[in-house]
Amino acid sequence: MQIHPINREAYAKMRNQLELKAYSANTIRMYLSEFAHLLKLLNDYPVKRLTSQCLKDYFLYCLKQEKMCERKMNGKINAIKFYFEQVLHQPKMFFDIPRPKKPLTLPQNTK
C-alpha cells in the first residue's frame, strides 16, 4: 500500500526535518518507516488532523492487532511524537501517550 497523495507532503516534511536536525541515517530510516506505517493506514485522512485519542487508538491497534513488541512501540511513539512536535510544532502536552512497560524477565536457572 502506498502513501496517499494527501499525506505525501507530511512524509516529505518529516524527512526534511530529520535531515536538518542531523539525525543518524539509522534513526531517519526507522522514523520514516514507522511514520509511513501510520500514513498508509490513514489512507486519505490527513495526518495533521489526528487527535491524541486517534493516536492512542492507533497504538492500541498496533499492540493488539499487529502484536508489536515494546521496543517497536517505543520507536513508533518516538517517530510520531517527532512529527507532531518537531514538524508541526504542536505543544508537548498534545502527546500524552503512555509508554509500554518493558516486560519483566526472571533470571534463568543455569543448574
TrEMBL record:
Entries under InterPro entries matching the protein: Integrase_recombinase_N (IPR010998), Integrase_SAM-like_N (IPR004107)
Keywords: DNA-binding
Domain Integrase SAM-like N-terminal positions: 12-90
A Pfam family reported for this protein in Swiss-Prot or TrEMBL: Phage_int_SAM_4
Record-given protein name: Phage integrase N-terminal SAM-like domain-containing protein
Organism, scientific name: Galbibacter pacificus
